[in-house]
Amino acid sequence: MAEDVSNTEDMISPIVTAYPREKRYILAMMQDVQKKYNYLPKEALKMIAKHAEVPFSQTYSMATFYKAFSLIPKGRYNIRVCDGTACHIKGSAVLIDQIYNNLGIKPGETTEDKVFSLETVNCLGACAIAPVVMVNDTVHAKVTSSGILKIIEKYRGDAGDEDV
Amino acid sequence: MKMYSNEGRQILVCCGTGCQANGSLQVFDAIQEQIQSLDDVEVKTFAKSTGCNGWCEQGPLVKILPDDITYCQVKVDDVPAIIDKTIKNNEVIERLLYRNPASKKRVKSPHLELDFYQKQKKIALRNIGEIDPASIEDYIDRDGYKALEKAFSMSAEQIITEVTKSGLRGRGGGGFPAGLKWQSCAKQSSTPHYIICNGDEGDPGAFMDRSIMEGDPHTVIEGMVICALATGASNGFIYVRDEYALALKNLNLALIDARKRSFLGENIMGQGFAFDIEVVRGGGAFVCGEETALIASIEGKIGEPRDKYVFPAEKGLWGQPTVINNVETWANIPVIINEGADKFASIGTENSKGTKVFSLVGKVVNTGLVEVPMGTTLREIIFAIGGGILKGRQFKAVQTGGPSGGCIPAELLDLPVDFDTLKEVGSMMGSGGLIVMDERTCMVEVARYYLNFLAGESCGKCVPCREGIRHMQEILTRICEGKGQISDLELLEEIAETVKIAALCGLGKTAANPVLSTLRYFRDEYLAHIEEHRCPAGVCRDLTEFYIDKEKCTGCGICIKNCPVDAIYGEKKEAHTINVEKCIACGSCIDTCRFDAVRIR
Predict the structure, then answer these.
(1) Which of B263, B327, B389, B427 could form an S-S bond across to B258 if both were Cys, CB 3.0 to 4.6 Å?
(2) ipTM
(3) What pTM was computed for the model?
(4) pLDDT tens track of chain A, all 164 residues?
(5) Is B199 at the interface with chain A, CB within 8 A?
(6) B64, β-bridge pairs
(7) Minimal C-alpha gap between A115 and chain B (Å)
């Protein structure tokens, strides 16, 4: 879940300074920040650049090059549909369409209420139980076109419960 | 050292990603909890979680030793029965045993009785499913670090000669002889030297490296230390995809344990040799599987490859001589040193020695990881080990080598698989994904899928790859939408050949393979899309219309239940009808119908 970034610097600083001031740790710093916030705030990229003594343009180019990073905040539930070959031939494209029909989001997008985000991943390495959908850290195996709707409903219910 | 082997019963719970998704961690916890209260049983019982057994289809798997009973698809509710009956009273629970669909008999010890295991030969996967990856003792019990001990009694040249003699070729895709790489690095005078393990397994449909890193991390470490000894390297790096959480956890734990036992560190095994390894988390870019891109990524840059007029063995990480091999290659090293090059070289074909791990996935009955000698035929892998095609459908093609590989048709099923034969038929070994496709797989769409993938993963550095792939992707998309023209095929071939010749790195050079191989073997499908506006497999939505064969439909209602858009109607026990206006052509009806009543127009 995305956290409040109003006092970002205080929050990010310990993550960044845990690493030596070397260029080769930039990727690791970014990953730690991404894990905590589910995205890379601009402030973080600036701080990492400063810490590793490289221009801001370099951290920005890395953040946009590597697939693991997002520059925009993600929803509470990040749905990752595996679109590896095994999942693909077992119907992952249908799942992506179903999510679009149901939530109105395409890969890379987040619902307006910030509850769901959708992304596709190349391969989760769980090909034997294809097609696979991960919601945050939970793996859902052999998901069908009607099964995905039930999964969405379940998390929508959970989100509703938390709001009460 | 604690020895597990003779102390009592062991319950092994497979906790690979496949089994975990089916709840094996909960099963493991339940077993752990319930054996605590077993003080009235004479023999001591241990439970341990293991890496992936490979037989993911039947997970979660629970194996009991020394009885040698394997229970399949175990649920938490089954645990009390396992404890009461099997552990306390030595009874076998029939209903949890695998039922062989051919003989209809229940199988107690699948690895002795089933072709799925019997036809395999495990070298790289030798420990997986047998040991607890979190326990260095388990690894040592199975001859772990013995090869390293032996390596210390050999000279650097002897180690390299042994690896060269074994004929081991890199398992990551290219198939470059490992011994040559080592030798080339060892003779460089510039120090330090580095060792890299490429664990950036990016090929969609391949997961053997993940399984090895998760299930047997010490074998990778041991292989790397042996190489360090032979090449005089001081530091090693394991580059792992950040998505592989369990692999990262187990590797880091293994590194700590190896240091504690001085298999790593300042003074390895008291021999005065220093070498250490650190784990680097990848950023999720497919191109980083290419070695020069991976090196750039470790250095803290964006992962762009460079031209390889100088190999990494001469100038690699930070410009220093570097040996880079992939996970499965490293896993073979301890066995080669322990058992000798000759034994390893006796397995396999003339130019491809040893075994290869394949991830057998797609439309096949037994999905999972299989390790077979090089030269085993595709038919043997897919039909004898894999159990044939799901639902008795027709085999259409098998895709090897990920996005760099090609699709191999039915007439080549008797092809003995090795590095060279696959190349000859227009595909490649790649990291070892074998994706089985049946009549419900559209080959044009498969080509489009790979090009889509590559378009997203091309780093953009060189024009042939960046632009060539994008244009091929556009053409293929057009054909899938029914807007293709016959001249498109020629254009596709022309672009494909150009990209193949002119691209900078392996990603681009091989990007045309999915297109060229499908055009070569499945041209009729392209023609059906272009000339008849029809997708024979019923996959391309714009060209597909499903209908129900009234003669065959029994009115069972299963398609109605599974249709996500309520497009099917009809009374029970009467033939159903599909409302084409509502139908989204997702195919759930055709995939669930047991009477072959759903047809493609």
Answers:
(1) B263
(2) 0.86
(3) 0.90
(4) 444 555 677 888 999 999 999 999 999 999 999 988 889 999 999 999 999 999 999 999 999 999 889 898 889 999 999 988 888 888 898 899 999 999 999 998 999 999 999 999 887 777 778 899 999 888 898 899 889 999 999 998 887 776 54
(5) no
(6) B11, B69
(7) 22
